[in-house]
Amino acid sequence: MKISEFNVDKPVKFISAGHFISSGEWIHPTRRIDTYVLIIGQNGTAYISENGEEYILNAGDTLLLSPNIEHGGYKKSENVSYYWFHFKLNDSAENTFEEYTDSLTFQNEHSLILPKFYESLRQDKLFILANQLLDIYESKYSNIYAGDYLMTSILIELSEQFYKNISHTLSDDSRNIYRICEWIRVNCQNKITLENVTEQFSYNKNYLCRIFKKHMGTTVQKYINRLKISLVKQYLCSTDKTVQEIAYIACFDDEKYMMRLFKEFEMMTPGQFRNAYGKTHINSK
What we know:
By secondary structure, the protein is an alpha+beta fold. The chain has nine helices and 14 strands. It is globular, with a radius of gyration of 20 Å. The two termini are 29 Å apart. The mean pLDDT is 85.
């Protein structure tokens, strides 16, 4: 695994962004550009190589391409979609990526540790930040720093997820709670109850509730609901499906219950949320 340390004592310089959706069979064009490119997989599989090294990008994976190095597709794909972001560093330096070692530490509070390629990240926060940045980009904000700060926030979120996953030594209980949280995340599009979780992991219900609240600071059901609302937000940002259709996809029995939960967590209705972050540049080539 290759990583690099980015100095962000100033925000990075955001250049452009978009939401790519392939139309039929597609292969990434070969190019060499002068910016970093962050790609976040949403659907399907993209096959991209950089300087001869091949990467398979699936939903929830990220790939950080370096400036002035040739990259392109090495295999055809179908039905692919991903977010892409072009940015530069303010100090004009081009970071090199080196193999990760277990002695990884932050050199200072202004550093970000970013992986060249990272699999299976938590998509909810990144997708929301991504759609906020796309909305700002299409809205043509008068403040030239709006994109810079949001682009830097996306990189901070990616760095935090990566760093915490590789640096934190888990106790047995913590490790089990982490596995439970991951199982809930993967299955949040299905109907999940506390009973489902206890059966899946062979836990006593009262004991699970106690240790989950201790480690996560919330109940199992509230955690499930929060992930489901995150899923709803992703669909509101990236599709034109109705609220009723999205409630069905997220396995809510009652559309009105979903709307009540949404307002409880987000302090606004699904319609207000969609209107706030509804502008996105979409490309297919």
